[in-house]
Design brief:
The chain has helices at about 30-40, 75-85, 130-140, 245-250, 265-270, 300-310, 315-320, 350-360, 380-395, 405-415, 435-440, 460-470, 475-490, 530-535, and strands at about 15, 55-60, 90, 95-100, 100-110, 110-115, 155-165, 165-170, 205-210, 215-220, 235-240, 255-260, 275-290, 325, 370-375, 400-405, 420-425, 495-505, 510, 530. The protein is α+β, with helices and mostly antiparallel strands. Helix 1 packs across helix 4 (about 245-250), helix 6 packs antiparallel against helix 8 and helix 12 runs antiparallel to helix 13. The longest helix is centred in the last third of the chain and has 18 residues, at about 475-490.
Length: about 550
């Protein structure tokens, strides 16, 4: 997971008192003047990293940590993987698992899944994809010598075998209906060793050229791509860590596209530039407040519900996110096949929050009922959002101390259960598979086994989640997941805030934007400049 909208860091371990006036619920201050000032200072040092106008330059926040997709799960490594590799299976616009390198997936018995591969798919080095490559990829994740954060998803796999050149058989230790989602994994060539992390070879629409550390990653079009030659001549991922500098480079034209990596206020300002375009789509990124259910105060469901009613999500979305989000009803995004719309929601209602707190036995004394500590990572958006939440809770008598930390320190505390409440965000395809409900809310999934960081425990929900995980009938599984979502919404182990709206800022000369909810970078293969713009650029 990565936090949203990486901007300038605030202090580490700092306790924030009442928010200053400019942090309260209002539109953030415009950044136009800042962008203009930087333009004057930096206009002489910005340059486009390629002379080819039909190579698409994408601004990213950092360089990749590891280009082996089995190991590199940081955000930028994952984005590069989407361009260089193909998955065995993939997700469609409804977040359902569909074939990619597989031509089809069969399920002859409860513990067996059989993938039949496409024929004629070639790796960038020229050799044809076979079952040996797929078997090697998945067996490497079962090998204890490979240190990969993906390994935990394959604990239920007993064996992976090649039936023939085009067929792979997965044998499970027990039935697991969501297993196809675990096949959304990039396939590497048979025998890919330690050097693969520096020189990846895949089957995707782009071939890796080079990685200039902390500067750029260059990819060229793979003309033999089985899905058809990309519309452009290549992609350069240009590393620009600062939000404002990415905005500046967009304005100057030295970057073509920035994808979900600008603060909402900067997106708003750039949207006024006639040379740029905004492309939006419904997203899957989910922001929430996690709650420690071992805490004596927070054990009471009425307190959790009161906190949920006290938070003005619409104000956060309108003023801090500039409308680039929708209120979240739960973990699963609305486009998910398993999404349940009929759950309890908590629209802003401070009067109802006060009634619930009174019923829970927390009368206000000098305006304060009790104190809580909210832990967040030290990103500017998190600081501003936390200040709004602090103000909302103060209005119902809850005194909230906000502590900000460097992400690694903050996340370590979350994993250890060292918190009362915290904010985090699930991103990309993490919430695409409804089995995430089991990983987050099943009592057997407390860290390090899973993501039940708040120690939620409900025996009935455990039972339903176990049945859903083993269920092959999609209609029956959906009914079970709906039941779980309704019950979780009433128990409030997570306080849902918002689902992010995907937003791309791009040069107006570009066409071909077709976005998936997870905003996988694969859409870049369809992006190109118009022929007239290419001629003008030359």
């Amino acid at each position: 997971m990565r936090p949203a909208d990486v901007v300038r860091p605030a202090g580490v371990g700092r306790v924030l008192s009442d928010p200053p006036e400019q942090c309260r619920v209002q539109r953030p201050r415009p950044t136009t003047a800042v962008l203009c000032a930087l333009a004057l200072l930096a206009s002489g040092c910005l340059h486009r990293p390629t002379d080819n106008p039909n190579v698409i330059v994408v601004g990213v926040t950092s360089g990749p940590n590891n280009l082996d997709p089995r190991i590199g799960t940081d955000d930028v490594s994952g984005k590069i993987s989407q361009l260089v590799f193909n998955n065995l299976m993939t997700l469609d616009e409804h977040l359902q698992v569909v074939p990619d390198l597989a031509e089809r997936l069969d399920h002859p018995d409860p513990t067996t899944w059989v993938a039949t591969l496409r024929r004629g798919v070639r790796f960038h080095d020229g050799h044809e994809l076979t079952s040996a490559d797929v078997v090697y990829t998945f067996r490497s994740l079962l090998d204890p010598k490979l240190l990969s954060p993906r390994k935990g998803a394959y604990r239920m796999v007993q064996a992976v075998d090649a039936r023939d050149r085009d067929t792979v058989v997965f044998t499970l230790k027990e039935p697991f209906g969501s297993f196809p989602a675990q096949l959304v994994l990039p396939i590497v060539p048979d025998g890919a060793g330690p050097a693969f992390r520096e020189h990846p070879v895949g089957t995707g629409p782009y071939r890796f050229v080079k990685n200039v550390v902390d500067d750029r990653v260059e990819l060229e079009t793979f003309k033999e791509y089985f899905g058809g030659r990309p519309a452009n001549d290549g992609v350069v991922l240009r590393v620009v860590p600062d939000d404002i500098m990415r905005g500046l480079e967009l304005r100057k034209g030295t970057i073509d596209v920035v994808i979900n990596d600008l603060a909402p206020d900067i997106v708003y300002q750039l949207g006024q530039d006639p040379r740029l375009q905004l492309v939006k789509s419904a997203g899957t990124d989910y922001q929430y407040i996690g709650v420690n259910l071992r805490d004596p105060i927070l054990q009471d469901v009425r307190v959790r519900q009161a906190i949920a009613y006290a938070i003005d999500r619409d104000a956060i979305i309108t003023h801090l996110r500039r409308g680039l989000a929708i209120p979240a009803a739960g973990m699963l995004p609305p486009m998910s096949w398993a999404f349940e719309p009929g759950v309890a929601t908590y629209a802003y209602d401070p009067a109802k929050a006060r009634v619930l707190l009174d019923e829970a036995g927390h009368p206000a004394v000098d305006g304060v009922r009790f104190r809580l500590t909210l832990k967040v990572s030290n990103l500017e958006f998190n600081r501003l959002q936390s200040s709004v939440i602090q103000q909302n809770l103060r209005d119902v008598g809850i005194a909230l101390d906000i502590r900000t930390y460097e992400f690694a320190t903050f996340y370590a505390d979350v994993l250890k259960g060292n918190f009362q409440v915290f904010t985090l965000q699930w991103v990309g395809g993490a919430v695409a598979d409804p089995d995430i409900l089991r990983r987050v809310f099943h009592s057997a999934q407390v860290p390090p086994n899973g993501f039940n960081r708040g120690f939620f425990h409900d025996a009935y929900i455990d039972q339903v989640l176990d049945r859903a995980a083993a269920q092959d009938d999609v209609r029956m599984a959906r009914a079970m997941y709906s039941d779980v979502q309704r019950r979780v919404a009433l128990d409030v182990p997570y306080i849902s805030l918002w689902c992010k709206t995907n937003v791309i800022v791009a040069q107006r000369t570009l066409t071909g934007f077709t976005l998936l909810p997870t905003l996988d970078f694969i859409f870049l293969k369809n992006v190109a400049r118009t022929p007239a713009d290419q001629r003008a650029a030359r």
